[in-house]
Design goal:
The protein is 79% helix and 0% strand. It is mainly alpha-helical and 85 residues long. Helix 2 runs antiparallel to helix 3.
Length: 85
């Protein structure tokens, strides 16, 4: 059984990412443009309404966090699928 050359594999991964960084930005910027304001708004709401402690999460907090988590999952899955095409 042949051994995987770790340094060559890591350098290939880094090189392929660096070589395709413009395409990665191209497929991810619309999703990030959507997620950034949503994340900022939800986090600011939670901070200004005194929900810094994770033990104090209320149903209202979950009504904000769960849709944001679902939107994030969809966005990152879409980015991953487009990256691997």
């Amino acid at each position: 059984m042949r051994k995987l050359p770790v340094t060559r594999a890591l350098s290939h991964a880094i090189r392929s990412t660096a070589d395709n960084i413009s395409f990665a930005f191209h497929i991810s910027w619309p999703w990030m443009l959507l997620l950034l304001p949503l994340n900022v708004a939800v986090n600011l709401y939670l901070v200004f309404n005194g929900v810094q402690d994770p033990k104090n999460l209320t149903a209202q907090s979950f009504l904000l966090i769960v849709p944001l988590a679902i939107a994030s999952i969809v966005a990152y899955c879409s980015i991953a699928v487009n990256w691997h095409r």
